Amino acid sequence: MLKKIKRYLDETANDFNYTFIPRLLLRPMMKQCSDKKKIVGAEIGVKEGHNANVMLRCLDIEILYLIDPYVDYMEVGKLVNYSNCYKVMLKNIKHFKDRIVVIKKCSDEALNDIPDDLDFVYIDGNHNHPFVDNDIKNYYDKLKVGGLIGGHDFNYICPDVIEAVVDFSVKKNLKIFNYSSDWWFVK
């Protein structure tokens, strides 16, 4: 796993203005999916595609559904500007166009576009409580047994994320795994 991440960092050193460090959730995703030949997953909240790029380089993904409406919105009291993100995302993942499906919709509108029995879902969309709560509820049902659902920003800066994750874990009696700002459950 560390060799794949190092190879990714070496290969992409000239691709970006900065080195994008893989999200820590990538480690359990790699472990959970290591014996699978055809990994199918989804990312909610793609923005510029940096995390998608890392996942596509480090995991043996057959198809990655990238869900993002690419519209400006209010989040945690500030405007999130998406005016140029879509073009940047397409550039950042251009090498993987045969392994991605881009869905320019809100996650709840994209549910019918996503198959069941996903290996993983990564949530990093709107961080307001109702959106995080809906993403977890809606996409948990899309996972296969043993699949992994998780996300980013499980920290004091985004208390709505913490609240939604904890509420769901209590309702479903699931153990929350957490490392740094990443969180996940196994179905």
Structural class: alpha/beta
Tell me what portion of residues adopts beta-strand conformation.
Answer: 15-25%
Largest sheet: 7 strands, mixed
Q: What is the terminal-to-terminal distance?
A: 23 Å
Number of domains: 1
Structure description:
The protein is α/β, with parallel strands linked by helices. It has one domain (23-186): Vaccinia Virus protein VP39 (Rossmann fold). The chain is 35% helix and 25% strand. The protein contains 7 helices and 9 strands; from the N terminus they run H-H-E-H-E-E-E-H-E-H-E-H-E-H-E-E. It has helices at residues 2-12, 26-33, 50-58, 85-92, 107-110, 129-140, 159-172, and strands at residues 39-44, 61-67, 73-75, 78-80, 100-103, 118-123, 143-151, 177-179, 182-186. A 7-stranded mixed beta sheet has the order 5-2-1-6-7-9-8, with helices on both faces. Strand 3 (73-75) and strand 4 form a beta hairpin. Helix 6 runs parallel beside helix 7. The radius of gyration is 15 Å and the shape is globular. 36% of the residues are buried.
What is the secondary structure topology, with strand pairs?
Layout: H1 2-12, H2 26-33, E1 39-44, H3 50-58, E2 61-67, E3 73-75, E4 78-80, H4 85-92, E5 100-103, H5 107-110, E6 118-123, H6 129-140, E7 143-151, H7 159-172, E8 177-179, E9 182-186
Main features:
Rossmann fold; single chain; 7 helices; seven-stranded mixed beta sheet; 187 residues; two-stranded antiparallel sheet; 25% strand; globular
